[in-house]
tRNA (guanine-N(7)-)-methyltransferase
Amino acid sequence: MLYDPTEHRIRSFVTRAGRLSIAQARALEELGPKFLVEYAKAPLDFEQAFGRRAPVILEIGFGMGDTTSHIAKGMPEKDFIGVEVHTPGVGSLLKQIGEQDLTNLRLIQHDAVEVLNQMIPPASLAGVHVFFPDPWHKARHNKRRLLQPPFVKLLAGRLAPGGYLHCATDWEDYAVQMLEVLGAEPLLQNTAEGYAPQPAYRPLTKFENRGIKLGHGVWDLVFTKK
């Protein structure tokens, strides 16, 4: 059963009207037509979108795209789809695509739940990345967190057998919740006893480095599809 985005649900993001830089606006205009995939209520043909057949990894909420471009550049044999709602982030990643000549990245500017429901075929993804989702750290806002059981079930259904789900957070109570929710999903299996070592492909962000210097923790979770 699909996680129906038409039902009344609490969104995990707030749409912000961020300011576009001149370079981001130029990237949207010049590179958007090639690298931006328009949201549609129809399955996306990965091979047609990328012009080749390769394992596809989906990243949800890529922010300004620095981590996404780093990983895509380091894994040219894989294709990446980044989903983000905020226009400055989309413009920023398009700018990096142009600067680094990345051909294995496509972006969708839309709500991830609807993208997963409508555009991503079941059992089609080699991996999913969810890095530092909004922690909604006030207790009364915890229900807005992205990684809730229905969404995790949806993600698991889109993974191919043996595919992986990699989440990371710098909020310990969110990490505890993630571990509980992911561990309760029958389609997923933890690759570690609890939290996973940071995979080498995920770079440290500048905020993460700053947090580590201040003694803050970061928790990675890597689960695979049974």
The first helix runs from residue 22 to 35. Helices lie at 22-35, 46-50, 66-74, 87-100, 112-118, 149-158, 172-184, 206-213. The beta strands are 56-60, 79-83, 105-108, 125-131, 159-169, 188-190, 219-225. Confidence is low (pLDDT under 50) at residues 1-9.
